[in-house]
């Protein structure tokens, strides 16, 4: 190994060391953000209350410094024994947080540290979670490119110095091969292209069919914010089949008319589309009457009605089995877990990517709601007597969906 090669290795080592030192804070932030998205994002936001409380400043609100370390892995016991946990449960509609026994103290700290440092994109201290704040892949890619250029330059310098040395010693040097014809360089370029091309090909293939953020224009501007948010209409009033069958189903026109036979005009806040266009709410009610064949003046159905051709937003592949009643009634999963803050949406969009990984992570972290000693709870799971006994004997403090077969392939694919 000549001196120039040693110098190149030293420079590379120094640059890598400086990179690690300078990006230390970014790495910890990324870890906290990744952990938050994987475990907490379905129920929490950093800056505002959601299904659960805002995470920013959570440690300052807790009764003791180590309270969170007891709470995260053992929520089912804490909500029945700890006064602060009971208060949280009462504040958030008696919804009990899922236990995360596998989260380490360092990971909990990373999540809360990230939440405490979180600010809304643009620098304002409030607002909902939007896109990720940082992505270190650009930083690493830039550093890799810089190191590659330095390596290439040093190799060229080494080649030229060797040529000068040979000429000084009277040795005949072979004619140098241009770098674009050098087999080593060409092989390296092919490997790099293969790796990058393979990565983006796999990423693109995995994303096929995923439609997170899909927000089609509907035939009637129906605001969930007005109905489910302002007027507090239960999701199950319109989507009653969600607790009784596989499909949630879209309500028939007659369900809408149950209210709008009496509600003929809108008197709430002005409705505005995301592009800033004002919505004529009363005109949208008129559209409903046209579909229903209803005459509000005579209060009669004086012409044939027709179905509203709603555009489907959430759609799973044909090879995936999903049962709404199993989740809503048996598993007691809140609608917002999969559909987002539907009560705050005017125009509904797909909240989650609905990928297999997203579903599996939920099954790994969501506790089964067993029947308790007083007979309150979910009797569907009474067949799992072994787990009841294990909980009584303190072998488990909770049982996740994964432990009852929730990650078996044939549960969702058959």
UniProtKB/TrEMBL annotation:
- Residues forming the Cytochrome c domain are 27-119
Q: Give the domain of life.
A: Bacteria
The molecular function GO annotations come to: electron transfer activity; heme binding; metal ion binding
Segments traversing the membrane: 138-155, 184-202
Give any Pfam family that matches.
Cytochrom_C
PANTHER family reported in the protein's UniProt record:
CYTOCHROME C7-LIKE DOMAIN-CONTAINING PROTEIN (PTHR39425:SF1), LIPOPROTEIN CYTOCHROME C (PTHR39425)
Q: What is this protein called?
A: C-type cytochrome
Organism, as annotated: Ginsengibacter hankyongi
């Amino acid at each position: 190994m000549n001196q120039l090669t040693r110098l190149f290795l030293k420079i590379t080592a120094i640059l890598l060391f400086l990179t690690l030192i300078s990006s230390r804070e970014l790495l910890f932030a990324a870890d906290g953000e990744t952990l938050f998205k994987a475990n907490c994002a379905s129920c929490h936001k950093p800056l505002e209350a959601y299904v659960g409380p805002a995470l920013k400043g959570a440690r300052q609100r807790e009764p003791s410094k180590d309270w969170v370390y007891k709470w995260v892995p053992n929520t089912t016991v804490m909500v029945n024994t700890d006064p602060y946990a009971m208060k949280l449960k009462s504040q958030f509609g008696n919804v009990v947080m899922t236990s995360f026994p596998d989260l380490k103290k360092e990971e909990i700290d990373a999540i809360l540290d990230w939440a405490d440092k979180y600010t809304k994109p643009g620098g304002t201290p409030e607002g909902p979670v939007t896109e990720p704040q940082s992505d270190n892949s650009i930083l690493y890619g830039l550093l890799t490119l810089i190191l590659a250029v330095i390596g290439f330059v040093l190799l060229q310098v080494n080649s030229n110095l060797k040529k000068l040395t040979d000429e000084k010693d009277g040795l005949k040097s072979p004619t140098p091969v241009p770098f674009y014809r050098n087999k080593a360089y060409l092989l390296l370029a092919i490997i790099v292209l293969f790796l990058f091309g393979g990565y983006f090909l796999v990423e693109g293939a995995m994303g096929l069919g995923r439609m997170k953020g899909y927000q089609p224009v509907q035939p009637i501007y129906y605001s969930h914010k007005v109905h489910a948010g302002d007027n507090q209409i239960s999701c199950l009033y319109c989507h009653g089949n969600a607790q009784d069958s596989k499909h949630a189903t879209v309500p028939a026109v007659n369900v809408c008319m149950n209210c709008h036979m009496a509600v003929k005009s809108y008197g709430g806040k002005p409705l505005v589309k995301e592009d800033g266009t004002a919505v004529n709410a009363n005109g949208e009610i008129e559209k409903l009457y046209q579909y229903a064949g209803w005459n509000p003046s005579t209060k009669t159905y004086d012409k044939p009605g027709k179905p509203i051709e709603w555009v489907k937003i959430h759609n799973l592949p044909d090879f995936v089995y999903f049962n709404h009643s199993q989740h809503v009634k048996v598993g007691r999963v809140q609608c917002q877990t999969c559909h987002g803050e539907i009560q705050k949406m005017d125009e509904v969009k797909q909240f989650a990517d609905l990928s297999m990984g997203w579903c599996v992570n939920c099954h790994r972290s969501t506790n089964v709601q067993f029947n308790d000693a007083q007979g309150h709870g979910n009797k569907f799971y009474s067949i799992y007597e072994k787990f009841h006994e294990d909980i009584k004997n303190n072998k488990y403090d909770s049982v996740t969906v994964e432990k009852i077969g929730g990650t078996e392939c044939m549960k969702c694919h058959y």
